[in-house]
Amino acid sequence: MVATEHGKKEVDLPLMESKKKLLVITGPTASGKTSVAIEVASRLKGEIISADSMLVYKGMDIGTDKPSAGELSKIKHHMIDVVKPDEEFNAAIYKSMVEDIINDISSRGLLPVMAGGTGLYIKSVVDNYSFKGAGNNPGLRRSLREELNLKGAEYLHNQLLAADPETAGKLHPNDTRRIIRALEIINKSGIPLSGLAGRNKNTQKYNVAMFGLHQERAVLYKKINGRVDEMLNRGLVEEVRGLLLKGYGTGLVSMKGLGYKEVAAYLEGDISLDEAVYLLKRNTRRFAKRQLTWFKREHRIKWIDVGKHTDVHSIAGEIITNIKGLLPVS
Question: Would you tell me which CATH number, out of the four given (1.10.10.10, 1.10.1760.20, 1.10.20.140, 2.60.40.10), belongs to the domain 138-195?
Answer without folding.
Answer: 1.10.20.140
